[in-house]
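Write out a sequence, fold above all:
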Amino acid sequence: MQFPEKIITFLNNAPSVDIGYGGFTFFPADGLEKGQVGFSIDSRKNSILTGAEGEWQKEWIVIGLDDLVGDPIFVDTSTPDFAVMTAEHATEWNPYPIADSLENFTTIITNLATLSINRTTPEEFDKNPLSMSEKENFISSLAKANPHSEIEYWEGFLDLE
C-alpha cells in the first residue's frame, strides 16, 4: 500500500502521549499497512471495503488508537487538509472530526505531550491532576484552531480523574 507522505511524516515525528489512563498509540510508519487490518484490509491484505454507507471508506487511513477505548484515530484523505477523525467501534462507522487537519492534530498531540509531563501514569495523574485553567486553556486553543471538530471528544479525553 502507498500512503501519503504527510501521514508518514506525522508518524515519524509523533510524540508519545500517555496521560493518566488516557493516551494514544500511533503506528510506526513502517507498520502502517498492518494497522489497516480489520478496517480496510484483512490479515492477507485483501480489501474488505464495500463502499456502502456506514462501512469503512477507502479514504480513511488509521494512524493509531485511543488507548482508553481502543477506537481508531484516522485521517480522512478525501479532505484537503487531511482531517483527523475517530469513530466508536460499532456495527456502523459514524466518524466525527477531532482535528480539522493533520497539522492541527500534530499541534494538539504536542500540547498534550507537554500537559502529560509528570502525569503519564494514573498514579502520577492522581498526585498532579490537571488544573481547571490548564484544561480550559487547552480546550480554548483547540476550539479556535479547529472550528469544524468535535471539541467534546477532547473535553472527555481530559476528564481523566
In short: Residues 5-156 form one domain. The mean pLDDT is 94.
